[in-house]
Amino acid sequence: MQLTESDLPALARGCAVLGTGGGGSVETAIPSALQALREHGPVPLVRLADLDDDALIVPMSSIGAPTVGHEMLASAEQPKRLREEVERIAGRPISAIMAGEIGGSNGVEPLAWAAQLGLPMLDADGMGRAFPELQMVSMHVAGLTSDLVILADVVGNVAALRPIDAIWSERQARALCVASGASTMMANYLMSGAQARGAVIEGSVSAALDIGRATIGHADPVAALTERLAARRLLDGKIVEVERNTGGGFVRGAVVVDGTGSYAGRMVRIEIQNENLVVFESGEVVASVPDLITVVDTQTAEAVSTETLRYGQRVSVLAWACDPLWRTPEGMAVVGPRAFGYHIDYRPVEEHVHVG
């Protein structure tokens, strides 16, 4: 399959939904992807089964606070510098680029980078959504080591880190990210085709395309999206409060949505760390990580990222089940509510009863 300019709208819409508010706004990624496709042509989308065991797969992503990435755009030289450093250290050419996370701009930008570098894009990612920290990936859960992290920032700095584990890779990469203005580009979890089998979430690019296509041109796009995701529609309403703070390479805060229409008299509070983490209603949890929580425009079903939440927006709040990997004990230890400092027990979103 070839990814072309015509696929970009659906991919962007799907990635925005899977971003659960984070991963960077797709609006900043669309122009660069469009330009790259027009200049360099279509990008092959390859399955893991298409790659040899010794193929070099390189997850690439942007790292930092979405509010900064929305304003400080990436340089076209950053993916080139990453490739040069990766191939210098690995001693062999890259076979395919993989999105570190399929959510938000981090699901769209790898398409631009693959086009610029003349490489295929792997139909897979490390999350099936977006999470804020480096260790929150399927490769870590599968036991692969994060012993090499390469960063390239917008002014030309390139750094290769040799952390002792995934937690230290997050700490050190985040510190350099902050030094670069809270937004930079990264390659980590370099792996062979053999190592990737069973360690990545396959089919995530195709899934993003399907999600985007489900809503384009539909008479009731939110209903179509809800059906496509097998999601719970937690609330339709108006944003009445937004709290958002940028620091330490993250955006943290909360948004309050006051119910309207059939949801009048209800109110939810969504807490965020780059992504939407937990939804509370009347002090009770109605959805939480690792399940996906997305805020979409009630009229268009376009996802609203955490950096673009505004008072008065009319939105629908959706929640649906995560990839089964994250519900395992190993997955929950990495991305469950307690991993984010919430002293609550996880319940699958489909088991909550106080939802529409």
From TrEMBL:
Pfam family, one: S-Me-THD_C
Top-rank taxon: Bacteria
Ranges where the S-Me-THD-like C-terminal domain occurs: 166-349
Record organism: Nonomuraea endophytica
Name by which UniProt lists this protein: DUF917 domain-containing protein
SUPFAM superfamilies the record matches: CV3147-like (SSF160991)
InterPro entries: S-Me-THD-like_C (IPR048350), S-Me-THD_C_sf (IPR024071), S-Me-THD_N (IPR010318), S-Me-THD_N_sf (IPR027479)
Domain S-Me-THD N-terminal: 7-161
